[in-house]
Every structure is written in structure tokens, then in C-alpha cells.
Predict the 3D structure of the following.
Amino acid sequence: MRMIELAALTAPASESVGQALRDVFTAGNTKFFLTGILTTLELSIVVVLISILFGTILAVTRNYEKKIFGKVASVYVEIFRNTPLLLWIVGSVFLIPRNLIGSPMVRGGFGLMLYTSSVISEIVRGGMNSIHNGQFEAARSQGFTFVQTLLYIVLPQTFERIIPSLMSQIVTTIKDTSFLAQVGIAEFFWKARNVMTGMSKNVIITSKHVFVIYIFVALVYFVINFSLSCVVRMMRRRVSVRQ
């Protein structure tokens, strides 16, 4: 009798989960999810590339220009690193004039870039500080200018040493794009929430639907970031072997 009762209890539960899966992963919803994933990846790539460029400029300025620009760069980095990311995303979306930057996604990405570049700046700066000063003297003796020394000697070694830390920050940036959902920007997390809103017009939303959607979101972020984390660990082993 107890076995029959257990079977009666588990059968409806499994059927309801299966129905929730069918409700969530319709053809239209699946396409909606995929466009959100692509948007998140594209946004992450653009933000990371610009942040690396701007962060490197900030790091070089802080290290080798000790007057006005160096102090300005230091203030910038300290302000952004010690304030919430969401503050800058909200500020960028709602305070930047629309006639200057029309797209909310670009404005939100700009706020994310400002914050990320300050973090990457410290990563790059730490790598540059690990380069012995004697290399500048050796380069100068060979007729290299300061800019040439940075481009051909210091920065290549710096980026080789900071690859693991930089990759870790890239993983963090991909997760940070989910903050953009809070200001209505249609990246993956926003689209996942709106699938649920759209479904409510046709089906009664239950805890099973919520569970399926958010487990799927978690799995997508996990697969992307765990893959990058594996790359980070592999690079760390290579860097440790070289050193």
C-alpha cells in the first residue's frame, strides 16, 4: 500500500515538471533564450576588449606619470573600485543624454566598461610592477624610447603574467552583465525573466516553471564560466611552469 501511495504522489510531480519543461522550451522561447545568450556574449566581448585597452592606459598612466594625469587615473580607479557596479550602470542608462548615446544597451555597457576597466587597470598594474626596472635601463641602452620599451618589452611580459587573473575577471564580467537586466536591457537574464511574463498569458505559472527557468539560467552561466575557468587553470599551470 505504501508503495502505491508513493507512486501516486511522484507520478503527478514528474508529469508537472515535464509539462513545465514543455511550456518553457517552446520553439519561440528557445529562440528568445538563444538571442539573449548571444547578446550577453557579444556585450561581454566588447566590454572586455575596451576595458583592457582603457585599463592598460590607466595602469601605464598611474605607474609612469606621477603628476596630474597619474593622480586623475588614481582617483578614477579608487572611485570605481570602491562603489557598486549597479550604481554606474543605472547612472549611465538614466543620466547619459539619449541624443549622445541613443541605445540603452550601449549606455548600460558603457557603465559596465567604466567599472571593469578600473579592475583590469589594477591587474595590469600589478603585472607591470613585477617587471624588473633593469629592463628599462637595458632597453634605453639599446636606443629604445619609453613608448617602444612599453610596447615591445614591458607590456608583452605583463600580459603573459596576468593572463590567469585577466581571464578570471572576464568570467566575472560575463556574470556582471546580468546587472543590466535591472535597467531593462535585453540580455540573457532579462529575456529569461520575460519568458515567464509571456508564459503567464497562456498558462498558469507554477513554482515548477520558475524552477525550470532559473535552473536553466544557472546552467547556461555555469557552462560558459566553468569552461573559461578551466582555461584559466590551464593557463596558470603553463605560467607557473615558465616561471
Remarks:
- The two ends are 68 Å apart (CA to CA).
